Inverse folding.
C-alpha cells in the first residue's frame, strides 16, 4: 500500500469515493443527508485541489485509490492558530479492518505536523449507525469534544 498526496490527475477517483461515502451514510441512516451529484463532486474536487484549498492524501493499492482523507486548513482563536479539518475520510469496505485507515490517519497527522497545524478536527457520521467509526477515531487518538455538527443552508 502506498500513501501520498494526490494531484489533479486523481481527483475524479477521489470524488467517486466521496460519493460512495455519502451514499453509505444515506443507506445506513435511512436519511438523505446529502444531494449526491457525481459530476459536481468531480468538478469541485478538481477545482479545490488545483487551487490548493483541498489537500487529499490517498491510499493506493497499485494504481487504484482504495481510501482517502481530504483536509482543509482553518484558523481559530480557540485552536490558537491554524488547524486542519478532515472533511471526508473513507476506505472502501473490502479494504477495512486491514489497518489502512490507521496508516492513512498516520500520514494525515504527519502532513498536519509539517503544515504547523495545532490540531486536527473532524465530524463523524450519525450514531448509533456509525459507532464503529467513532471507536476507530478514538482508538487512533481522537477525542470527543461534544456538541453537534450543524448547518444552515444558504440560498
Amino acid at each position: 500500500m502506498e500513501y501520498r498526496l494526490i494531484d489533479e490527475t486523481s481527483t475524479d477517483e477521489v470524488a467517486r469515493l466521496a460519493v460512495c461515502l455519502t451514499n453509505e451514510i444515506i443507506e445506513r441512516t435511512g436519511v438523505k443527508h446529502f444531494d449526491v451529484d457525481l459530476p459536481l463532486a468531480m468538478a469541485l474536487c478538481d477545482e479545490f485541489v488545483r487551487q490548493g484549498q483541498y489537500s487529499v492524501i490517498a491510499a493506493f493499492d497499485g494504481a487504484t485509490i482504495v481510501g482517502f482523507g481530504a483536509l482543509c486548513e482553518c484558523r481559530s482563536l480557540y485552536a490558537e492558530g491554524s488547524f486542519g479539518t478532515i472533511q471526508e475520510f473513507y476506505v472502501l469496505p473490502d479494504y477495512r479492518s486491514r489497518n489502512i485507515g490507521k496508516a492513512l490517519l498516520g500520514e494525515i497527522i504527519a502532513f498536519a505536523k509539517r503544515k504547523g497545524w495545532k490540531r486536527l478536527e473532524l465530524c463523524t457520521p450519525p450514531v448509533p449507525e456509525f459507532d464503529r467509526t467513532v471507536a476507530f477515531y478514538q482508538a487512533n487518538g481522537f477525542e470527543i469534544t461534544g456538541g453537534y455538527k450543524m448547518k444552515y443552508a444558504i440560498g
